[in-house]
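Mods, move this if it's the wrong board.
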Amino acid sequence: MFTKLSLRLRVFLFFCLIALGGTGLVLVSLWIGHSRVSSTSVTDGFVFAGIISILGTVGLTAGIWLLFDENVAKPIEKLASEMRTRAHAGVGSDVDTNAARYLGDLAPAASAVTTALSDTALSTAQKVAAETERLAAEKARLTALLTEIPVAMILVNANNQIVLYDGQAAEVLSQIGVPRLNAPISEYFDLASLTSAQNKLNKTGMEVTFSAKGAHDRLSFDTRMKPMDGGGYMLMIDAEHVNIAPDAARPLVYDFDLMERGEEDLGDQTKLRDLTFAVFDTETTGLLPHKDDIVQIGAVRVVNSRIVDGERIDQFVDPGRPIPPASTKVHHVTDAMVAGAPDIGVAGAQFHSFANKSVIVAHNAPFDMAFLHRDKTRMGVEWDHPILDTVLLSAVLFGASQTHTLDALCDRLDVTIPPELRHTALGDAQATAEVLVRMLPMLEARGLTTFGEVVEETRRHGRLLEDLN
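Not the wrong board. Structure tokens:
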């Protein structure tokens, strides 16, 4: 019945309810107070009437507020968040008009706007897709060409951060550490040998041949350093250092926007779009960080607001004890799968290196970080990275009253988790990263453009994590 009334009339009825309810309470209170006068005093009757009026008014106000919150405030908040997901996160599903059925024509109007926006976006996306397909074909040809050249190539910007590496370079870098875009080149090669070669390069402007020592005295590589226009340089490493199977995947990983990137800064004033994120998840023997152990770590990297293909960790971890059958039923990790895998000391240190100079992101981060902090001595590291939690980001964007599970977030943002990857460390890390990428422009649209602003806003919802843990 009420769905046929206009929004203005419904709001008017709320005020009518307050007026009628308040009037009725006063009249009833006065009648009760008057009835007590005969057995007590006039003063006592008026005081009693006043008390009833106050209590009744408080109760009436609470009841009307609950009605208003349930039928007006929450639906408006939900409708606003759904419109943001469609405007900034590329979500294409229809707006849920049923949740806002008491808001008059607002929900249908919002649905019409988002439909028109989706149609426009679809037209643009089709054009972009055609161009993307052409560029993908060109990239495939370039990758094939580069991998036929018996040289591993790494492009480094003026701030000595990696901008590009080919499949052969990935093999070289992986002998020292996990290959990563935007990572300092000094994490992989001895800084002294790089600096010496760079000084010669700057003096002569000509290609320099030198022996690049691996960081921590790991290996040595015959290398050429060639200057690039606009700053930076190309490292070319002789193929004899590369041990790559002929049929192995040889991705070309790059982001030329990093050529203009300054030195990494993880301060409060850093723009969200300039941050590098290491998104991870763990599977464990149980739910108690003080006594259970990690059996799998999965992680992916987000650079320039996009997930970097090929930069990931999918590592089993030997917990040093049997995995309870109840836990195996959830994540499907068995004792046989972790047999021979590194322990948490090695695996944790590998993830620490993977996350260097990055913001760590997880869904319900306190749970996963508690395991890492407990074993930091075995890893020989300190977990002092800045951290973001997608549970709290969800509360900021969609309201604390909504459901904030990873499944709910994926449904809300049109992120698909293949069933076989759900409750695997890498699968959940990938889903969390995709959720994060969709939420970043939504946060910016809310005016939260810097890391400090986002952290400050998430602190308002810290109680959510306390309830989860």
